[in-house]
Amino acid sequence: MLAVVVSRADVASERIGDRLLELADWTEHEDERRSDAEGGGTYYRADGVELRTFDELHLHLDGAAAAFDEPDLLVFASRHSGETGPLLTAHATGNFGPAEYGGGEGSLARAAPNALRTVRRAFAEYAPDGYDVGVECTHHGPSTVGCPSLFVELGSDEPEWTDPAGAEAVARSILALRETAPTHYRTVVGFGGGHYAPRFDRVLVETDWRVGHVAADWALEEMGDPRASKAVVGKAFATSGTEFALVDGDRPDLVAVIDDLGFETVSETWLRETTGVPLELVGHLETEFAAVEEGLRFGAPAAGYDDDFAVVELPGELLSAATGVDREATREAVDERALAYDTEEGGTVVAGPAALADADDRRGVVAALAAVLEPKYDAVEVRDDEVVAVREAFDPELARAAGVEEGPAFGRLADGEPVEVDGETVDPEAVRSARERRFPL
Rounded to whole angstroms, what are the CA distances from 48 to 29, 87, 119, 147? Predict the structure, then answer.
């Protein structure tokens, strides 16, 4: 169940609450166990969601989940304050350092990485014209909610807080969270970067990875020496439900602490390259080949693949020749057929070997590489043990035999123009010969 908290101390929250009540089919209920100020009294239920209103400002509402009937996810419908113009934003809560605005010092609430991804995508769909959308780093309370939670906010000043269109966009984004699992195993903790976390927003939008807690540069400064704050770093992983971290900037001490805790620091490249690929397969292939950072790349068949694979060598001379003809087409030829393959030059040049679902698939890769040669050659044939490429070209020996002297006449014949020799026309086709190039398999 999705729990929604509305605060009477927040005008934007009340406007969002009003829109929520208009957008779904609610039933009204009474809770006499709790005071009206603490979420009791009149509350509302619709399919998969319950809405309660509190007097206190959200960031001081520790333990808010206790007012609801065992929610899986809790959303604080809130205003956003800042000099950012019209903005829809969301974030996890807690404090990496001192607790200036609710919560506890060095205390983090359970994040909802999968819900954050869903709501960020809903923002993009529902945001009114003129509104930016994004996410923020972890900041302010509460630190103890009772279930995974996030703030979903309308900002950034009074005109937006009372804007019906903005409130409706946030309300629709919240309702998009019904039946959304709050967490997901493909999640990273974020460290570093600005308050509005552009790098981690890219991860949410452009990969299939989720983002849990994010400690911006200023939060890391407040946290202090990561070695002395090892417990806080560990909490970020525990409350995000992951073992992976993405670190923005050069932070060797922090990376060392992450490693000491048994977690793994990955790069944005790794997140992009592993998108759609089962992590067990990623692990096996990185062990078999090399790390993504060292050039391993995953092909289209790797998406969702969870079976055995065969490692094969790609024919070096053929691969090199195809790369020389068309680098991008060569990579596409391998990428469309291989689970994974090694690369050079920052992942732009296929180097081999390759992992295939079946060793017999190597023949298909060879045929695709041979096809890349076709624009350069007149004929390309794939045989059992070699690829033969044939190209007809100007043959100086045939030209000499026809009485043509070296010089400008050679150039004209090579360009396909006929020349005159002692009153006779020498046709360029008469001085061409077929040249073969063989690529062993």
Answer: 15, 27, 16, 16
Q: How would DSSP label each residue in 220-267?
A: HHHH--TTTTHHHHHHHHHHHT-SEEEE-S--HHHHHHHHHTT-EEE-
Long-range (24+ apart) CB contacts under 8 A made by 264-273 are: 266/188, 267/292, 267/293, 268/199, 268/202, 268/203, 269/293, 269/347, 271/188, 271/203, 271/207, 271/209, 271/246, 272/206, 272/207, 273/297, 273/298, 273/347
| pLDDT for 398 | 67
Phi first, then psi: what are they for 283, rounded to 5°? -60, -45
Tens of pLDDT, residue by residue over 240-258, are 999 999 999 999 999 999 9
Query: Cα 19 vs. chain centroid, distance in angstroms?
Result: 32
Omega within 30 of 0 (cis) for the link into 128? no
User: Smallest Cα–Cα separation from 318: which of 355, 362, 357, 359?
Assistant: 362
Q: Give the C-alpha separation, 242 to 127, whole Å.
A: 30
Please enumerate in sequence order all residues whose Cβ is within 8 A of that of 364, keeping only pairs 6 or more positions apart, or say none. 337
How many Å apart are CA 339 and CA 362, to the nearest integer?
12
Return all residues near 153 (Cβ < 8 A) that are at least 6 apart: 12, 78, 79, 80, 87, 88, 89, 90, 91, 170
